[in-house]
Structure of BPTI/Kunitz inhibitor domain-containing protein:
Amino acid sequence: MKTGALIECDAFIPMYTFNARKKECEGYIYGGCGGSKNLFPSRQECEQGCKHLLDREKRSEASCEQPPETGRCLAAFSRFAYDPEKGDCVEFLYGGCGGNENNFRTRGECLKKCNVAQFKYLNLNDVPTNDKIVVEAN
């Protein structure tokens, strides 16, 4: 780009963008310049394009909120389950069959899966460039 060149971003294009904090697609007025992959011409296309994010998040949250289950078999495998009250992964004995999805071989695997469900990360590359970013701390 030449020094002193101006980029006109005065368009008024109705688009939709996925709001990670609200977990929904919402209307957005796009100025016509810059932007990201998080711009969709319709709510339906936005929801379809971001469905995998919503589905993955719902599965993670649901599995991490389940209580640890030993299962119906009688083995004694050391496993880890996320405890929402403690906000941490705790060790428990798994019988080897049955149980639920809140069952991880290592504490690291448990933390990786369940912290994603507890602390939402915002990918700044997916935010329209002419939008304000608000970060809220819990």
Summary: The CA atoms of residues 75 and 118 lie 31 Å apart. The chain has two domains: 9-59, 66-121.
